Amino acid sequence: MTSTTAKPKVTIVGYGSQGRAHALNLRDSGFDVTIGLRPGGPTEIKARADGFTVKAPAEAVKDAGIVAILTPDMVQPQLYGEVIEPNIAAGACLLFAHGFNVHYQQIAPRDDLDVVLVAPKGPGALVRREYEIGRGVPAVYAVHQDRSGNAEQLALAYCAGIGGARQNAIRTTFKEETETDLFGEQAVLCGGATKLVQAGWETLVEAGYQPEVAYYECLHELKLIVDLFYEGGITRMHEFISETAQYGALTRGNYIVDEHTRAQMRKVLQEIQDGTFARQWIAEYAAGNANYRAMKQADLEHPVEAIGKKLRANMKWLASSQPAAAKPAAASETPPQSEAA
Ligand code: NAD
Ligand code: MG
Predict the structure, then answer these.
(1) How far apart are CA 220 and CA 222, in angstroms?
(2) Tens-digit pLDDT profile for residues 161-194
(3) pLDDT band at 245 (very low <50, low <70, confident <90, very high)
(4) How many angstroms separate the alpha carbon of residue 210 from the centre of ligand 1?
(5) Which has the closest alpha carbon to 71: 112, 17, 121, 119?
(6) Is there an atom of ligand 1 within 6 Å of 73 CB?
(7) Whose CA is nearest to atom 29 of ligand 1?
């Protein structure tokens, strides 16, 4: 693609959390979008119901100016090697939403391709919802390989097309996006927050308090605090919580996140930077995900889940609200044998 004005044809391989949101937003932004999926795969019906042309990935990528690989990270190397590289047009642009496979050298893209990253900082359903109401989620973008001289413009065009407002798009590198994304989800957002909630709830319940009351205190109310962070930072939280809550937070927060916690955070980061985490996850996936499944099952069976399910049944307002991260059938947990494209 050499034109900076014409919108390139986009093929999106994968129609899950990110794939569906990108596809719908790009189409509404005037892009010609085709979806590449395995015939009979779990999301094919959904893509067709949304009105897209769906082709097998090998066919779908042939005449695309931009090919976005939005399958689970662990299936991308085989998919790229067997299906995309032999079929993608010379000089096309290969686009990722996470730098993992390029950064950890699981995919070495063909030399003639532009290779870019556009990573919205939010789950797919939010990427779609924010676009529909005329806003957008912040996004980061990067260029790994620029053969056309136009790779950055292509990344920015795609970024704008999915609703990542230009003023919020930050240029990064594959390395920075990969390492910070993994760190954020492991230490703070997914790993850290989950374990903090579970441990807080367990502490209250073990001390004899009602599990339902502990649920409100340690899980439900987290949203109210995070909404304040989102709107106005920690400053906003301090404006809204009581003086007693502020004094307790200021004097007791460091009991929880102490020097040991900080050392553990540096360890998490070290294992990301030196490739330990990537090697472990790739090996787990290749071995069929037995440990991953068992650990996930333990989270799903944690007693706070049963309490929450019961209490949320009476939260009428939840029935009408869209999930923040609706995700189709757990395609990413399928072992590699059954993921052949
Ligand atoms: P997902 O698990 O929601 O979707 C997977 C899709 O890929 C499904 O349509 C599935 O049928 C399809 N698929 C699986 N194997 C396939 C194969 N071999 N050939 C063709 N299609 C196949 O994935 P996701 O969570 O949207 O992640 C996609 C990418 O976006 C990843 O690189 C991820 O790191 C990145 N990302 C995800 C999020 C998020 O919130 N989920 C946020 C930012 C970036
Ligand atoms: Mg991530």
Answers:
(1) 5
(2) 999 766 689 999 999 999 999 999 999 999 999 9
(3) very high
(4) 39
(5) 17
(6) yes
(7) 70
